[in-house]
Amino acid sequence: MMQLLRKAFAFIRRDFCIESGYQASFVMGLMESLMLLIILRFVGRLVSPTASGTLSHSGLAYFPFALVGVAFARYFDLMLRMFSDSIRTAQVTGCLEAMLCSQTDSITIVMLSSLYSLISGGIQLLLILLGGAFLFGVDLRHVDVPATLLVLLVSVAIFIAFGVLSAAAIVWLKKGDPVTWVLGGLGSILGGAYFPIDVMPAWMQKISFLIPVTYSLQALRLTMLKGASLAEVAKPVSTLAIIAVVILPASAVIFAATIRRGRKEGTLTQY
Questions:
Q1: What average pLDDT does range 223-246 have in this prediction?
Q2: Which pLDDT tens digit goes with each residue over 66-95?
């Protein structure tokens, strides 16, 4: 355990040293988040709560609905991309094969190499939510903290698993990642990050219920904005738990198989 913690600290320290040289990028990221909040705020003034059954039944205005949806959808999108980005960077810099051929197993390396992104992304998520609360008056005082943390934990586990599949796709395909394209780009739209699902056509609504982020955002909005307890979000949480139980071991097996194939064929250094 101590050896694993030392490795984790080494990866975080490495990535922090790299990112600390690009302060402008961090500031621009915060400004981008602030501009997104401003856009959602003014769009919210144009959207009536009666325009959607979801908004009218829950008693939510558009801006709080979109704030939680977009903030967490961006964080989950980071979960999808951070592993494949780490693999891609290692490929381009020529150190992927050396990393994956070390004594540390491939899954551990991929996980540890993405810890810094996980932490920095969590900080940005918190800043977006605090910005919505303090700058635009979104009421987050009724958050059920235990229920929210549990939903977030299960959701992060799912998107980490899909992120590992994304990394496997990069190792296999070298360029082009269908996992991130489907769950990241389309997932934010079909999962209801920007607008309620019930305003979409019926065929799109059916697709949305096949995407994990739909259940994550549904539960998070209830626990954060309505103070719903774990019992009140048991249905979406149960769905997420089933997905996690299936996808976590499957992603590890697929990634390990992809790495073995790359070692056998000598293609780990290709990109």
A1: 92
A2: 999 989 988 888 888 877 777 777 666 666
Residue 209's Cβ-side half-sphere holds a number of Cα atoms within 13 Å equal to 8
Residue numbers of the domain that contains 45: 2-265
The pLDDT value recorded for residue 232 is 92
In a domain, 222, yes or no: yes
- pTM for this one? 0.84
Calpha distance 139→17 (Å, rounded): 37
172, with CB counted inside 10 A (0-12, 13-18, 19+), is middle
- Is 271 part of a structural domain of the chain? no
Structural domains of the chain, count = 1
- Give phi and psi for 18, each to the nearest 5: -70, -50
Provide the Cα torsion 171, 75, 152, 61; round to 10°.
-150
Quote the pLDDT of residue 240.
93
- The residue ranking higher by pLDDT, 261 or 202, is 202
CA pair distance 233, 223, nearest whole angstrom? 8
**Residue that the structure tokens 């019930």 belong to:** 198
Non-local CB neighbours of 118 within 8 Å, separated by 6+ positions: 78, 79, 82
Phi-psi region of 139 (alpha: psi -120 to 50; beta: other; left: phi over 0): beta
User: Is 51 within the bounds of a domain?
Assistant: yes
Angstrom distance (rounded) from CA 271 to CA 56: 50
Does residue 76 lie in a domain region? yes
Q: What is the dihedral of CA 188, 189, 190, 195, to 10 degrees?
A: 110
